Every structure is written in structure tokens, then in C-alpha cells.
């Protein structure tokens, strides 16, 4: 082979590598090969190169921001990273925005976030304000009490007790229906309820069981989950009202994750570390 032909062969080898590298510098260059409809939410996010997600920061196992590292972990965070990977080519192209329960609809309608995935129960009232995907998770409402408190065995024991829960959650209405004699302390987030429970200022905290498992894991010797669920909550991803193209795209992703094992991997790496099993939480494969 002459020097000239060796140089030409080298160029043929190196050029594809260089082109691949340049493509990866583009927002949608690595992995995001799907052609999204022009003007769609997916195309806008792909072109921007970053998915903006509303999520809780105080719910271990679903959405929790580590104060030391700043990393957001949990099942909802894992689902969001899978969306970012599909849209932009990398799960790192994501920005999390803390979104407490009462802010979820406003953050979506004001386009502060592209979507909300924040232990967001699908209800008729909320569906009038935002559009939900199909359920990606099912939870049950339960109680968290002090480990040494033997007075509370199920929801019927809350009569005359003080129960802490979060404003804007479905837990409030269910408690009012199930036990009208309970005194409700309604706060912005569950992180406010935990110190109140530990200090004895409230008797119980009520919300979805998997949220309670995460809170219990932070205080394993002081708190316990009662383990008597009294309601079933389907969680969905919330997007702008009537953005049906984005909803259908997300529904396709959820169906794929349920079938290809990504859902199971995310559960195992987050909620599963508590010892919980996914039988009652995983939607049917569609």
C-alpha cells in the first residue's frame, strides 16, 4: 500500500468516528432518532435539549433530593430520566423542579415544567385541569405512627386523633370520608409532618403507602407503617390540558417500560430496597 492509499484508508476509518462524535454534541444526536411532529411538545424538548420535570423533593423512594449531593433519586426520578433519554439521547439532559402537591396543576398550565411526575394520583377533578397518562404505578393509602404507639391499628382508630397530611393530596378527602372524627393538620409537604409525628404533636401521618415506607426508612426505630391500606391510588404523569400527542407518546413509553423490564429495574433500584414487592403496584402490561 502506498503512503497516499494508507492516508486515504485512515481517513475512511476516522471520519465516521468524528461524525458520530459531532452528532452527539447536538441535542438529539445520540439515541433520539425518532422524528417528532413539528410543533409538538416532544420536538420542542428535543430541540431545547433538556427535559424540565416537576417532582417532589421530600419523598424518599419516589422523589428525594439529597441535601449533600443535590441528586434527585426515587422511582419518579427514574421514570423521568427514561423520558429524557428517549427525547434527548441522554438521561442527564434533565432539570428537576421541586413541585409540591398544591403546585402541580399551576406548574403544568404555566409551562414552568414540561410534565409533572410526583406521586400524582389521577382524579376526575385534576383531569379537568391537566391531561394524565395511563397509570404507571398503583399505591394504597395507609398510616404512619410512632413505633411505640399501640393505640392505632387501622383507620377506624383515628377518631379523635390528630392526623397530618399534605394540602392538595387525595389523602385529605379520603380521610374526611373514612373518619370524620379525626382532626386533620394539613401542611405543604410530608417533611413537615414527620417532625410533628416524632414530637407527639400529631398522632399519625396519612398518605400513600410507598411514600410512608420511605419516611419510615429514615426513622426505622421510631416510626412504623400500620400496613392496613384503605384506598388505591393510580399515579399518572401530568401534562398540559389537551396535549394529547404528548400524552400518547408518554403512554407508548410506559407500555414499553412495562414490557421490556425497565419498570422492574426502576422499582428494584428504588422502592424495592425497602423489601416491598411490586405485585399490587405494577400496572398490567399493555
From TrEMBL:
Matching SMART domains: PBPb (SM00062)
This protein's record includes keyword Transport: yes
Entry-linked Pfam families: SBP_bac_3
Keyword Signal belongs to the record: yes
Domain of life: Bacteria
Gene3D superfamilies attached to this UniProt entry: Periplasmic binding protein-like II
Positions of the Solute-binding protein family 3/N-terminal domain: 50-274
CDD domains linked: PBP2_GluB (cd13690)
SUPFAM superfamilies: Periplasmic binding protein-like II
InterPro entries: Bact_solute-bind_prot3, Solute-binding_3/MltF_N
Keywords assigned by UniProt, alphabetized: Signal, Transport
Family: Belongs to the bacterial solute-binding protein 3 family.
PANTHER family xrefs: ABC TRANSPORTER GLUTAMINE-BINDING PROTEIN GLNH, AMINO ACID ABC TRANSPORTER PERMEASE
This protein's name: Glutamate ABC transporter substrate-binding protein
Protein source organism: Actinomadura luzonensis
Species lineage: Bacteria, Bacillati, Actinomycetota, Actinomycetes, Streptosporangiales
